[in-house]
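Section 4.2 – Deliverable D4.2 (structural model, holo form)

The reporting period included a commitment to supply a predicted holo structure for the target in complex with magnesium ion. Inputs used:
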Amino acid sequence: MRRLPPVLIEDGCSRELLSLIRTILAACKEISFRVGQGALSGVLGSTLDENIQGETQKKLDVLSNQLLKDILLESGYVKAIASEEEDYTVAGNPDADYIVAFDPLDGSSNTDINSLVGTIFSIMAAPKEADPADPAIFMQPGHQQVAAGYVLYGPCTTLALTTGKGTRIFTLDKTHGSFLLTEEFAKIPEDTQEYAINASNQRHWQPAMQNYINDLQAGSTGPRAKDFNMRWIAAMVGDVHRVLCRGGIFTYPTDTKNPEKPYKLRLLYEANPMAMLVEQAGGIAHTGEQRIMDIAPDAIHQRVAVILGSKNEVETCLNYHK
Ligand SMILES: O=P(O)(O)OC[C@H]1O[C@](O)(COP(=O)(O)O)[C@@H](O)[C@@H]1O
Ligand SMILES: [Mg+2]
Ligand SMILES: [Mg+2]
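Output (structure tokens):
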């Protein structure tokens, strides 16, 4: 099985970008180990702190964030970082060519129940003369990402990664700590009979999403004339991995549950990197109004609606929104 570096070089990845990606993965290997130790490593449970988004931080959120932040800033490969667990961006090496936005631990509500969690990252070019402390350097649309990926900490540790030449899947060989290529190119089937949404929010959705989901649930007795199955892992990294592996539609739509927060998922370090991975695997990633990677960000922790997955099924869902 082929190791990550030669595969990325083959995909035209520069030595520097490869070094940056390997730096991120070094931290993810440590997170994988800590997650795997569970209660034995004292990392379960919550802290008493909240992040800027008003979410109580899990100990693993804080630990994963610290591991990634330290290794990236010490590496000298980043001009600045943005993280779900950092209220503001953090300046790095002013001469570096890249900036990284990351969700150090996705699926935090799963940490204490031994369920799927992951790390999501988005790499963009750093504007040359810009001040590393200026958060505006992160206000780039997703189609400007130079690389995106996630590491899923499950029964095995898997990496989905793209540098714009297709989406590759690697598995961590824990015997010697290397990521080995296990899926040459992920290809999302265009059609599916599997959907993922948090159905407990149904009464808060817009009518278009209500109608779309009602017709899925009506199955072969309804206008879709086929049965659909539902899955919800409550970790975007897990639900998107399933979509990359066997297709499906994953959505966290806008809702009226909390008028101040009509969206759940964050653009810079959840929606954009997942959108690049999905599009590079032949799928679609949309908000219901526009392609996710065309959005011009205006805030570090900005949230958006997400509808992504199998091309024909997402298009059908979007037709309900027209
Ligand atoms: O609690 P809900 O409504 O099921 O939301 C689950 C969603 O929230 C998230 O856990 C948010 O991400 P974080 O865990 O990184 O905050 C997503 O991974 C997941 O898709
Ligand atoms: Mg997340
Ligand atoms: Mg998180």
